[in-house]
């Protein structure tokens, strides 16, 4: 009874905070609501007996990624009004992509089966002798190692896209040009000036 009560509590706060992430206008508040969502998801993982996933979610995502996002949002001078200005123009494309993702998720959930070829043929030890962390590691790095690597590539592409979207070159800032520095010679790098005695440079 108590576990069911905590499950509904965590689930309700998780859904509410997720809705606030996508509906709030302040990006800093959106990041804070996302941190709250992660904490409640960690609570659900603990109720399911996956304490390792719960701690990873809190330590990695809340303690590192979301705090980094918060500092980036607060420090970068990003005009969110300009980003939202073209929202209506690209909304049909976004809805199309969203419906495609929804169709794929429904198809995957409806047709999900465990392929016999992916299951390890080694005998499984009793569940009482295998820790949660070891079972997750053996499954992730043996049967699904290629999918794990593909997920890493997807995150890398997302990171490069985020950097490309937020990178702005200002014309009034003097930047370093490595090619010009390497191509310099003593004639262009040094200027010999003959100063008369008793007079300084002006």
UniProtKB/TrEMBL annotation:
Keywords: Cell membrane, Membrane, NAD, Oxidoreductase, Quinone, Transmembrane, Transmembrane helix, Ubiquinone. The keyword Protein biosynthesis does not apply. Its EC number is 7.1.1.-. GO terms for molecular function: NADH dehydrogenase (ubiquinone) activity; oxidoreductase activity; quinone binding. One of its GO terms (cellular component) is plasma membrane. It is found in: Cell membrane. It is a multi-pass membrane protein. Its main location: membrane. The chain crosses the membrane at residues 6-23, 30-48, 54-78, 90-115, 144-167. It catalyses: a quinone + NADH + 5 H(+)(in) = a quinol + NAD(+) + 4 H(+)(out). Belongs to the complex I subunit 6 family. NDH-1 shuttles electrons from NADH, via FMN and iron-sulfur (Fe-S) centers, to quinones in the respiratory chain. Couples the redox reaction to proton translocation (for every two electrons transferred, four hydrogen ions are translocated across the cytoplasmic membrane), and thus conserves the redox energy in a proton gradient. This is NADH-quinone oxidoreductase subunit J.
